[in-house]
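Dear all,

This email documents one entry for the complex benchmark we are building for the journal club exercise. For each entry we list the sequence lines for every component of the assembly. Then comes the predicted three-dimensional structure of the complex as a token string, followed by one or two observations. Please use this as the template for your own entries, and keep the labels exactly as they appear.
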Amino acid sequence: MKYILLLCCFWVWAVPAFGATVVHESALHRREIAIAKTLRCTVCQAESLAESQAGIAQDMRKLIREKLRAGETPDQIKAYFVARYGDYILLKPPFDPLGAILWIWPFALFAVLGGVAVVMMRRRARAPLPPPTPELAPEDRARIEALTRQEQSTDA
Amino acid sequence: MWSGISLNLIELGHFAAYLAFFVAITQALAPVAARIFKMPSLRAISVNAAPLIFLLTTVGALTIVYSFLTDNFSVLYVVTNSNTHLPLFYKVAALWGGHRGSLYLWVWILTAYTAAVGYHGRTRYPDRLAVIMAIQGALIAGFYGLVIFLSDPFTRIFPIPAQGQNMNPLLQDPGMVIHPPMLYMGYVGFSIPFAFAMTALLTNWKSELWIGHTRRWSLVAWGFLTAGIIFGAWWSYYVLGWGGYWGWDPVENASFMPWLMGTALIHSITVQERRRMLHTWNIFLIITTFALSLLGTFLVRSGVLASVHTFSAAPGQGIYLLTFMVVVLTLAFGLFLIKGGYQHAEESFISPLSRESMFIWNNVIFTVACACVLLGTLYPLFLQAASGARISVGPPYFDLVMVPIFLIMLVVMGIGPLVSWRKANLSKLRGRLLLPGLVGVALGAALWFVFGKIYWTAPVAVALVGFVATSIIANMGRAIWQRKRQHHERLSRAFVKTVLGNRRHYGGMIVHAGILVIAIGLIGSGLFKANKLVMMAPGDILHLAHERVRFDGVQDIRGADFTAVQGRLTVLNNGAQLRPEQRVYLGSPMEVTRPSVNSTLLRDVYVDIGNHHHGKWEVHLFVNPLVNFIWLGGGIVLSGVAFSLSDRLGRRRKQPVGSEAMSAPL
């Protein structure tokens, strides 16, 4: 019953498509793009292989596809590109001596800044209040009065 | 003899720019001279120079625009960025369509801000105005030096070519007309808090007297920067044709960093105003925000990073900008180190659970976020310069690092406004958090239940958005209810009175709501997008995420300054027509993809057309849910900023009544 219902839905949904070819994206392409997104285009600035229109990017995507067809895993393919181009090709820097700081940095910074904030708040909470502001000197008071009077006259 | 007239005019502009440069130097030096020669009247020069410099720079800008409009190809900048076929609209915008002109726009906006502060300060802070103007004058002179000596938009070329090259095709879009001025108004706007802070350090200006003005100027700059970033994303989405709007491109990061620090700043200033603490930290934030604006300008304009934003730039400019930046920041941070603590906190911290502590956590998180973007953007450059090793830091890294930080921001955003100043009552707070917490968990769980297999960030982000939204609404409802009970008013009147009576707070809440709407857009388009790249023959149909799109063929079309292959596609669900193009512009060999978008509130159907082989065309179809929420949220954020800024205006109108009442007993 459920299937008939589903079929009916699908039929209504697909009616205008009768007589036309429905195009599908190959599963291979999907896997190829997933890998291409993690690799950078070597001739462009800040573009992944998946987005780049450059000729070399298209060639490299083709290479990825061929390697996928040959049954290689995504990790093997990435390793192949790293071997040829170095870590530069990876858009996500690996956790190695050069890239480690990028991954440690956010946590370290949170710890340090958070720690400083907590210490400062504690210390300020214990610190005695600074002395109250001293009484206004007579000449200051006269100045304020003069200014107030001036303002009132301009308002009027 | 049109060309004869315009020849004269561009030289007039050139002369005006030189004059402005020298006036700016005078403006910077006048208070120094006043001090050395003990002639205080000289300080007036600084103040009076501001409108003059603005006027002269405007003359220069108008002559450049005029040269574009009259196709004056004796001007090098016009030759490289325009031709006779360029539509009128873009000829005006061509002022900032290339490297030289965009630097000129930078300076022009800086002079406009300076003139505005000069006018604003005449009655409000006349005693320190000369120093503020002198600092602005020094910045203007520094940038004018770059414009005049290294990137002069007035340079002539002989013999005069018959036709110009074209404007960069990617820039020929209405988004490009709005995006750079907005972004620059943001970048440059942060120079004003900077000038205030420097003046305060130099003259021991009591912070109560200037921090309020600084807050408002910062908010103006922040609003423009937000608008600039949103327009940039919008342009990237509708023009570049990659189906996205934010790619963690180094140049995007360069605009995002001052935004993050500026956000920390406008929150942190509130603490200083309300609780008279964090004076030193706020000055540090002001300097850092402006430093990041300068860094952004340097990164984009020096050619260190190449992208669609970097026009070909001579190497000397990079060195000039770097030197200028180093000098300005060394002086600023040096002054900060010597005198940063000139004013101490006047109240002590009472409880770690208070509004002020929430603001401090906000500052910690935004600073960490900014530092992460900074390291990710600059580390590859440093590494390459230091050791020659090359690594890449791209979107996969930033998504992984920044998304959790954004989620933590949402948590603080939901809790912060519920916590009271000084010392929060824990049990009361728990009660206030109960409903938002439940709503959030329910929404997150519902999403998890409906979609099942999704990345963990989706339900968490949705839960947090629900949490924050409920907390905003509940908080507002509570305030209105209280007023209604106290004043025995009707609900509508209580609502209006409450919201209008505290514009700063509710302006902020509108901004928060806008950020939530943007967050919804980011969640939808980031985590639920779908795309397919296929070869299609005319008549073929493509299914993607409940959308069915039919390819009807292509046609050749001709625009004002380009020819194009235009794809014709129909979205079968609603009959919308899509017309993506592959354009070839005059004077440019590259093909430019122009996507076509059918947009509804809930989803965008977005399509690119590519090359063809054997009667089939490459069609790249995207279904991006909720993208419009991002633009909508941006609008809400800006209206919130405007509402918050309307605060002082409203109060000033009421002032005469108040002063009468005060003068009565006298």
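Observations: The longest strand of chain A covers residues 22-23. The radius of gyration of chain A is 34 Å.
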